[in-house]
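All the exercises in this workshop are built on plain-text protein records. A learned vocabulary of local backbone shapes supplies the integers on the structure line. Once this layout is familiar, the rest of the handout is easier to follow. An example says more than a description, so a record of this kind follows:
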Amino acid sequence: MTKIVFILFFVITGYNAVPLIENYIDEISDNLIGNGIDDGDNSIDISHLGPEAFGSPKNESGEALSQWSESSLMNPEETGEYVEGDILMPRPFMRNGIRTESSRWTNGIIPYVIEGYYSKDQRDMIMKAIADYHRLTCLRFVPRSSQEDYIVIQSKSTGCWSSVGRIGGRQEVNLQAPGCVSKKGTVLHELLHAVGFMHEQSRPERDDFVTIRYNNIRSGTENNFKKADKKNVDDFGVTYDYNSVMHYSEYAFSKNNKKTIEPKVSGVTLGQREGLSRGDVKKVNKMYNCKKE
């Protein structure tokens, strides 16, 4: 079984986000099953999330996001009332009990639909994020035709959120406009949850790399900073990624505009939302057994 997968860094320092492609790949042929992916065990361990992750979208998260602006110290997905801010596993996924596994997407192909209103610029931001995946990884987001499992990118007033991995059937990725589509990295972040990735700072050894300032964390959100159990983590031999698009910002869930996370290495910035880091790309391709270099 593929364990909880975290976006990791190739080396501790010295890497910036990978240059980002600007042009969306408009058409994808039906032969993508031969795109270089060797499909193995598809399971993703989500036991780290706990029962609190299962629920319904919250209007409170949408209201909180509506107060966010691009000058805010936090990233938009860090305003949510969900587990770790933006992870939501729908109640129907529980079926007869709490689920501890989801799945990878078969052959790395992710059918998608965009629903609701987005302006042209907002829709372009979504497509630029998708184009980055096509340029840098073997993942392929394809317009849904009749596929049973697919994601729905939507803009309901419930904040930024996604499930982790493929959960089966219609699967929502909420990108409330304008906040969740103001930066390409936020779109990349939520889509990476759907691909099967957790937050970087949840790694069990994260305390070797960052310091959590619990005295600055907003009451009731302390659990967003809990670490995963080591036995549930596969790091694929890649170390902690300060530059990951999946890392919290330094002010995530702050109650007093003071830092809640501080790196133990000087000269790094946490929580960038400009693009995939080299570590992000490497982790995606390792998770999906991509032969692409």
